[in-house]
Write a structure and sequence with these properties.
heterodimer, A: about 120 residues, mainly alpha, Helix Hairpins, 3 helices, about 65% helix, about 0% strand, B: about 525 residues, two-stranded antiparallel ribbon, 22 helices, cell membrane (chain A), Group 1 multisubunit cation/proton antiporter subunit C (chain A), transmembrane (chain A), NUOK/Mnh_C1-like (chain A), transmembrane helix (chain A)
Chain lengths: ~120, ~525
């Protein structure tokens, strides 16, 4: 499972960077979205994947029996997803407003503040 | 329970919530902006005094024992940064009353300002690396919204660069946190510091260190990833610019100081050289960029980059004295840089432009404003006896002691170039006569950023400027007691055992011994670790 995940994550990062390097601001935002998803999957995978062992404590016991999955990375990923979602919502509104003001879906046309 | 550690986070959150409740009431929001920030200043003073006497103050959230819950910890560095946040917060609260257009106030300027301060305070106080990420995001989202309030073309273009680069940095930071958790199995920074020495893969630790360096380097606007800063900081309303210039990039520098003294102190090696030359190039590019500019706020923006170089130089030299100097530079820069932006706002109000070529004659017209600018600008350049001199003096001395002569020489030359830029502003804005074609009558109706008329309340703009200029002088005069605090910071950061002990509650070596006997490699699958029955 891990090699497959690693491959998927690498592909996500690569696609995200490729999208971000393009001129269109819409593609830029798609790139940012993919990038945050890649990071979330990375956390999920590197923290160790334990299959079919939810971290539950059986009744009458004080700690779980045998190997169980680590619940912390899932809490972390959940938080990161929510944050990424909020930021993405902002980014979408931003590019819409930017498009209205600049009238172009092209990063090359946004050089006013660079000189 | 140590409420003083949590208060600097809770108070701005509370002020933000109250201000949101009074969404339609402009006077109430303005009242909360000042009252809330006065409360924040008092809380930060309390924290500072308490930390000064005790060294470390920790608070475990929800009383969960250290490596499992979220820890809030204030050491001297955090306390000083929180104190600066309080001071700048109040200065901005007052200054905003006079400069913020009604249009901005209507769309939540004040609540956003409070939330930004909450994010900054949270980042300074947390002892948990993922929590640090969360506070960074709280701060960033508030700053995004503040940056585009008004929605002008320049703001949109600046915001796209600012948002993209900062989100990229956040994702690198988040990926690094994930990999770090996979490597050491904990998120508590003190616990990480203990366990990272026991990681078998030295290469993995180096990769992590570089990822953190890049992520915080982007956020701190270090070379070569600084270009979002001069592209965006001059676009928003001036109070927002000043707040960003004073505090936001310093949070990135603070994170660098924290992570590279606490977690990655062992693996500096060649990373130290990278950081050293990164710092030097940051100084040089920043100051050269500023030399080419003729827009007031853009010059100042490039100087932020340049000054960031000094701070990182203090960290990269990595001696207690150099770290103390770096923190001194952060502290001095927060005051001075904010003040310079505030002054640029006043000159804009008086002459209606930020273009140096079109300004002039202010020395004759407003001598006291000229004095305030003079103090701040020459303090930035490092002229004695102002605050910048001592910051630079300590770093240069640490550089000579570390036998890094080339680097120190460049740092001094950059100081000279800074003086050149500041003298340029001085000549153009204050000394030269006002150009004929831009003859603004002195009694021109002042207007807010959105062009609508607001009351001429210049004293609200002058008050923070005068107080901050006074601070710069006072820091210079009372350099010795301040240096004592800075030396404490240097020692605390250089020997993180105290920090680790304060968080985990046991002596660092005892904890380390426990780890070695109990679990040589942290096992992913045991929840609770060695503490639970």
């Amino acid at each position: 499972m891990e090699p497959l995940m690693a491959l998927a994550i690498g592909l996500l990062y690569a696609t995200a960077i490729f999208m971000m390097l393009r001129r269109s601001i819409v593609k830029l935002v798609i790139g940012l979205l993919l990038l945050s998803n890649a990071a979330n999957l990375l956390i999920f995978t590197t923290a160790g994947m334990t299959r079919g062992a939810p971290p539950l404590i059986p009744e009458g016991m004080l700690q779980p029996v045998g190997e169980v999955a680590d619940p912390l990375p899932q809490a972390v990923v959940l938080t990161a997803i929510v944050i990424a979602f909020g930021v993405l919502a902002f980014a979408v509104v931003l590019i819409r407003r930017a498009y209205e003001v600049v009238k172009a879906d092209d990063l090359d046309k946004m050089k006013d503040t660079d000189t | 329970m140590r409420p003083e550690v949590a208060l600097p986070i809770l108070l701005p959150l509370l002020s933000g919530a109250v201000s949101l409740l009074f969404w339609r009431s402009r006077p109430m929001q303005r009242f909360v902006a000042v009252a809330g920030n006065i409360a924040l200043l008092i809380a930060s003073l309390w924290l500072f005094v308490a930390t000064l006497s005790e060294g470390y103050i920790t608070m475990q959230m929800g009383s969960w024992p250290a490596p499992f819950g979220i820890t809030l910890i204030a050491d001297m560095l955090s306390a000083v940064m929180i104190l600066m946040t309080g001071i700048i917060g109040l200065a901005m609260g007052i200054y905003s009353l006079a400069t913020t257009g009604r249009g901005h106030e209507k769309f939540g300027y004040y609540p956003l300002m409070h939330l930004l301060l909450a994010g900054v305070a949270g980042a300074f106080l947390t002892g948990d690396i993922f929590n640090l990420y969360v506070w960074f995001e709280v701060m960033l989202v508030a700053s995004f919204a503040l940056l585009i309030l008004g929605g002008e073309r320049a703001q949109m273009e600046g915001a796209i660069k600012y948002v993209t680069l900062n989100l990229l940095a956040s994702v690198i930071f988040l990926s690094a946190v994930g990999l770090l958790y996979g490597t050491v199995g904990t998120l508590n920074m003190a616990d990480i510091a203990l366990r990272i020495d026991m990681v078998e893969h030295a290469g993995m630790v180096e990769v992590l260190a570089v990822m953190f360096m890049v992520a915080f380097g982007i956020k701190a606007a270090a070379f070569p990833l600084f270009f979002w800063l001069p592209a965006s900081y001059h676009t928003p309303p001036v109070a927002v610019s000043a707040l960003f210039a004073g505090l936001l990039t310093k949070v990135g520098v603070y994170a660098l100081f924290r992570v590279f003294t606490l977690i990655f102190d062992q693996s500096m090696g060649y990373l130290q050289d990278i950081m050293l030359w990164g710092a030097v190039l940051t100084m040089v590019t920043g100051v050269l960029g500023a030399a080419a500019q003729y827009e007031f706020r853009r010059i100042l923006s490039f100087h932020i980059v340049s000054q960031i170089g000094y701070m990182i130089l203090g960290l990269a030299l990595y001696t207690p004295l150099a770290i103390a100097g770096g923190v001194f530079a952060i502290m001095h820069n927060i005051v001075v840089k904010t003040n310079l932006f505030l002054i640029s706002g006043i000159t804009h109000r008086l002459q209606g432009t930020y273009q140096l070529k079109k300004m002039g004659g202010l020395y004759k017209e407003r001598p006291w404003l000229a004095v305030a600018f003079f103090i701040s600008a020459f303090s930035l350049a490092g002229v004695p006896p102002l605050s910048g001199f001592f910051a630079k003096f300590v770093i240069v001395r640490a550089g000579i002691e570390a036998e890094a002569y080339v680097v120190t020489g460049i740092a001094l030359a950059v100081g000279l170039m800074t003086l050149y830029s500041m003298v340029k502003i001085w000549n153009e804005v204050f000394w030269k006569a006002l150009p004929e074609e831009n003859h603004v009558p002195v009694s021109s109706t002042p207007s807010g950023d959105d062009g609508r008329l607001i009351k001429p309340s210049l004293w609200m703009m002058y008050l923070p400027v005068v107080v901050l200029a006074l601070f710069s002088v006072l820091i210079g005069i009372f350099a010795e007691p301040i240096m004592l605090v800075m030396n404490t910071i240097g020692e605390q950061l250089f020997a993180p055992e105290g920090y680790i002990e304060a968080v985990l509650g046991v002596a660092a070596n005892a904890q380390e011994a426990l780890l070695e006997t109990d679990t040589p490699q942290p096992d992913m699958n045991t929840i609770g670790g060695e503490g639970t029955p």
